[in-house]
Amino acid sequence: RREPLALINLKKKNEETGEEELASRLNHCKAKATRHIFLIRHSQYNLDGQADKDRTLTPLGREQAELTGHRLASLGLKFDQIIYSSMTRATETTEIISKHLPDNTDLLREGAPIEPDPPVSHWKPEAVQYYEDGARIEAAFRNFIHRADAKQEEDSYEIFVCHANVIRYIVCRALQFPPEGWLRLSLNNGSITHLVIRPNGRVALRTLGDTGFMPPDKITRT
Q1: Residue 23 confidence (pLDDT) above 80
Q2: Distance of CA 217 to the CA centre of its chain
Q3: Which of 38, 50, 86, 205 is the most buried (most CB within 10 A)?
Q4: How many alpha carbons lie under 13 Å from residue 179 in its C-beta half-sphere?
Q5: Quick check: helix, strand or coil at residue 80?
Q6: pTM of the predicted protein model
Q7: Cα gap 46→125, rounded to integer Å
Q8: Contact 185/40 with Cβ under 8 angstroms?
Q9: 208 closest CA partner among 182, 199, 217
Q10: Is the pLDDT of residue 13 over 90?
Q11: What is the DSSP annotation of 180-195?
């Protein structure tokens, strides 16, 4: 609902008598800037932890986060904000990547976004989980992945530290691919996925799950 025509009151629009005034109102609603979204998957964590607080990063996971932080810094970009999942492994990854954290959110927590097609035999969550997690992850997509506000004058660079399922679902939705195909994508720990959202709403995928900046012996996908 960010198309300029959708942002103008239809009743008022129909009452317009001058084309110039209508064009001016449309131009006022148009986005001018590009948003660069960097979706970072958390680093390797302790799979034996029973509760979320116990699923902390492993020593290798902390190394991966350091490498990801160095990679992001090497891009020479001025990042506008870092938003991260409230789960322990994402929080710890973010703490290593940056010491200045503006915000965090429950919307980006890991979950089961939508039943995958084709299905897989090794991962079958209860059906109710798709309804609970799916609505939340879809809300995250709608809340965070959109064209820039019309008031935004300059391009922005934003980091989101979250989880593989969330990133894969967001990529499918953003590119208008069937979202049921999210499980066909694979993401390494600490990987960088770069989405670009143009002022006209078109989305481009610059990188998907990039870990080329890590030595081969540091790459994992747990």
Answers
A1: no
A2: 27
A3: 38
A4: 16
A5: coil
A6: 0.89
A7: 21
A8: no
A9: 182
A10: no
A11: GGGGG----TT-EEEE
Average pLDDT of span 161-190: 97
Tens of pLDDT along 177-220?
999 999 999 999 999 999 999 999 999 999 999 999 999 999 99
Count of C-beta atoms within a 10 Å radius of residue 127:
9
| Ramachandran category for residue 176: left, alpha or beta (phi over 0 → left; psi -120 to 50 → alpha) | left
User: CA–CA separation, 76 vs 112, rounded Å?
Assistant: 35
Q: Which residues pair with 192 in a beta bridge?
A: 40, 210
Joined together, the tokens standing for residue 63 give 């190394």
For 48, the token pair is 């034996």
Task: Render 113-161 in DSSP notation, one character per residue.
Answer: -S--SS--SS----HHHHHHHHHHHHHHHHHHSSPPPTT--S-EEEEEE
5: CB partners within 8 A, 6+ apart: 13, 26
Domains delineated in the chain: 1-30 (no CATH), 33-218 (3.40.50.1240)
3-state secondary structure (DSSP) of residue 154: coil
Rounded distance, CA 34 to CA 85, Å? 24
- Asked if residue 87 lies in contact with residue 52, where contact means CB atoms within 8 angstroms, the answer is yes
> Is 65 in contact with 93 (CB distance < 8 Å)?
yes
Please give the torsion angle defined by the CA atoms of residues 172, 175, 177 and 179, in that order, rounded to the nearest 10 degrees. 30
Q: Could you read off the pLDDT of 43-61 as tens digits, one per residue?
A: 999 999 889 999 999 999 9
What is the DSSP code (8-state) at residue 106? S
Average pLDDT over residues 56-76: 95
DSSP state at residue 45? B
d(CA 54, CA 77): 34
